[in-house]
Amino acid sequence: MKELIILIPHYNNIEGLYSSIRSIEESFKIDLMVVDDGSKIKPSIIDLKKNYNQGEIIFEALPVNQGIESVLNYGLKKIVDLNYKYIGRLDCGDLCHKNKFLIQLNYLSQNQDIMLLGTQVNFIGSENKKILYKSNLPTTYQKIKKEFYVNCVIIHPTVVFRTQILNTTGFYPTEYKAAEDYAFFFKILKKYKVENLNEVLVDVIFDENGISFKSRKTQIKSKIKIIKDNFYIGFCPIYGILRNSILLYMPHSLLILIKKNFFKK
Q1: Angle, vertex CA 201, rays to CA 264 and CA 82, nearest 5
Q2: Which residues form the signal peptide (predicted)?
Q3: H/E element holding 260?
Q4: Cα–Cα distance between 173 and 160 in angstroms, integer?
Q5: How many domains does the chain have?
Q6: Distance CA 239, CA 251 (A)
Q7: 59: helix, coil or strand?
Q8: Residue 177 and residue 221: Cα distance in Å, rounded?
Q9: Is 249 exposed, middle or buried (0-12, 13-18, 19+ CB in 10 A)?
Q10: Inter-residue contact 182 to 150 (CB < 8 Å)
Q11: How far apart are CA 40 and CA 57, in angstroms?
């Protein structure tokens, strides 16, 4: 069985893709699977290999744009057939700290009951590349499970998980647009123990013009639906629905201002 492969979806962000794979600095072999979602300008396998030499690169190109949920599921299905023990995630533009994956694999090896492991992150300005604020995510399974009804407290491009969990959880749900990770992690939390390392191992680009911001309302509506679909009578689910309902109508500029001032490094 092979050890680890990193799944990276790509859509019209070649420079971000190259910077992300160049940031992977480890002492062991790590393979990559890059899935292009019908980009106008696609990366070439030759250029990918020029920017990454720490393992094998598998490049898949979808003929037309299908959306992030379909791209991730396409990649996962391919990876399952390749027999890797662990799957990691990384998004184009986000940067790994040195030995990120070694630290996570060592922790997972020492804690066999943990099936998915995330980390803390620095949120970096897209223009000045300076740290805007640092995440303060819960680290224990019980706290993550509780707070997940309020917000997605696992950051997608930080995770490494055991491939075997897909046998019972299945792949990313496709009915929750722009919140496929939130729905996917909810499925995992119901069956398996997950944690976050209390260590910053990824720099996430905070791009106010990015896709995640442009689809913000769609994402919040999907999050509310996910909470309702996993609802029980309790404080956290009720608070989560109320909180996200407020965020749905809160000006985006105000939300960014709050984050920058209350979550400074």
Answers
A1: 145
A2: none
A3: helix 252-262
A4: 19
A5: 1
A6: 20
A7: strand
A8: 9
A9: exposed
A10: no
A11: 21
For 197, the token pair is 């390392």
Cβ-contact 188, 115 below 8 angstroms: yes
* The token pair that represents 38 in the structure block: 């019908």
Q: Is 63 helix (H, G, I), strand (E, B) or coil?
A: coil
Beta-bridge partner residues of 42: none
- Per-residue tokens: 129: 């590349």
For every one of its 265 residues, what pLDDT tens digit does the chain have, with 9 covering 90 and above? Answer: 899 999 999 999 999 999 999 999 999 999 999 999 999 999 999 999 999 999 999 999 999 999 999 999 999 999 999 999 999 999 999 999 999 999 999 999 999 999 999 999 999 987 778 898 899 999 999 999 999 999 999 999 999 999 999 999 999 999 999 999 999 999 999 999 999 999 999 999 876 655 556 688 899 999 999 999 999 999 999 999 999 998 888 766 555 555 555 555 4
What token pair was written down for 49?
A: 């290999």
Which tokens is 180 given? Answer: 């496929």
Give the N- to C-terminal CA distance of the chain in Å, as an integer. Answer: 40
CA-closest candidate to residue 2, choices 66, 68, 63, 55: 55
CA-CA distances (angstroms) from residue 143 to 91, 120, 149, 180? 26, 15, 11, 21
Which residues does 241 contact at the CB level (< 8 Å), separation at least 6? 224, 227, 228
- Could you tell me the CATH number of the domain that includes residue 187? 3.90.550.10
